[in-house]
Amino acid sequence: MLSVPRVGEGMTPLTLLVGALAFFALNAQLIPQIVWEAQRDLTHSVLATVFSMWTLWLVLAMRQQADTGKYIALGILVGLGFLSKYNYVFFLAALLLTGLSFAEYRRQLWTGKILISFAIAAALVAPHAYWLLMHVGTATASVGKLGINASVTPAAGLANLFEAAFQYSILLLAAWLLARRSDSVESMLRPFFARLLLILAVLLTLFVLVSGATQIKDRWMQPLLFFLPFVAISFSRLRPSVYASLSLVVMLVVALFLPGRTLLAESVGKPQRTNLPYHDLAAELRLRLGEPALIVSDKEFLAGNLRLAFPRSRIKVLASAAEIPGLAEKTGDKIQFFVTDDPRHGGGPSELARAVEAFVGHSLARVERPMLYMPSAAHSLYWVRL
What's the pTM value of the predicted model, to 2 decimals? Predict the structure, then answer.
């Protein structure tokens, strides 16, 4: 029967880590944002989740032994976690508050040695914090994703938060209900994980109420709620055959449908990002323009792909029209150009791209190539020399 083992004198941090990784590998199949979204689209959320996991393991391991090395490791994890994605801070705050609420963890966290962790984390974050202060507008450009709207009632934001958490946990909850046994399980981790979940829920609720956010996406929950399998398993034993079978079914479905979306795009008439022929389009740009010193784009996804195609070029993402005058800064006679694409497939370049066209006084040129595995459709890049 699957259950959370007791964390006692006989369990070393390494044993705890190995057991937790094996258990999480089984449960990851039941978290859509990990088994599907993380393979399809996510980058920073995956990195933040890794650091959240390691931070959780380290805090749990510090209960038994907290030498100087663990405080150094904690500082490194906190610094890198913050740099990976800002919402890591919510998990870190909830984890530290949870730890401080238990005497056995408070003895390790409320000590002078924790200053080592703070100093290391501050040193790692300091360069980014300086850049943040100098580029507040650029750093906060994506805040609009939160849908902050003071005129909307707080209930709308809270409902959206609940929906995101529910979408994150629905498969896991269903598997737990189908596989659970009636007998409960003794676990020293149950109070810890339950309180961690409660405190995190309170922090997120306060954030929504204070900020006025109305759009919380389920994938943002990945670095925050990854520990839900441990919460579920700490309350009851599970039938291994049922639970493992459900995980296997989901794993097989994902293994078929994830690449199938790309390979069958022609049949279903719906292209995916993996169908975009960026490699061929970049090769055409290289033939026409050579190896540029600078490439500017108004699309982050396109800019990332151009980085792969032109590894020796500097890549800049144009966030707003206010940055366009800066494009006039030349670097000798080196090649520099602006590139955009047409993600709407027929809508043409964006308004920001048209503003660049007007600024440089030249029309956008166009290159086009058939979609990968979808020859009936084509994708275009638009470019202009700066």
Answer: 0.82
> Contact 378/345 with Cβ under 8 angstroms?
no
- 248 and 297 within one domain: no
Parallel, antiparallel or unpaired: strands 336-341 and 294-297: parallel
Lowest mean pLDDT segment, chosen from 96-100, 239-243, 267-271: 239-243
CA distance 382 to 344: 13
d(CA 123, CA 197): 30
Are residues 177 and 283 both part of a single domain? no
The CA distance from 59 to 105, in Å, is 8
- Residue 262: band (very low, low, confident or very high) from pLDDT cuts 50, 70, 90: very high
Kindly state whether residues 97 and 190 are assigned to the same domain.
yes
8 A C-beta contact, residue 340 and residue 382? yes
Let me know whether 188 and 79 are in one domain. Answer: yes
pLDDT band of 146, cuts 50, 70, 90: low
The amino acid at 318: L
Number of helices and strands (H, E) in the chain?
18, 5
217 and 322 share a domain?
no
Handedness of CA 300, 306, 311, 314 (dihedral sign): negative
Query: Does residue 5 register a pLDDT over 50?
Result: no
> 4: which DSSP letter?
P
Give domain status of residue 8, yes or no. no
- Higher-confidence residue of 68 and 64: namely 68
Count of beta carbons in the 10 Å neighbourhood of residue 300 = 11
> Cα–Cα distance between 129 and 48 in angstroms, integer?
18
Tell me what pLDDT residue 240 has.
Answer: 81
Domain that holds residue 305: 273-385
Measure the CA–CA gap between 87 and 203, rounded to whole angstroms: 11
Average pLDDT of the chain to the nearest whole number: 86
User: Residue 6 falls within a domain, yes or no?
Assistant: no
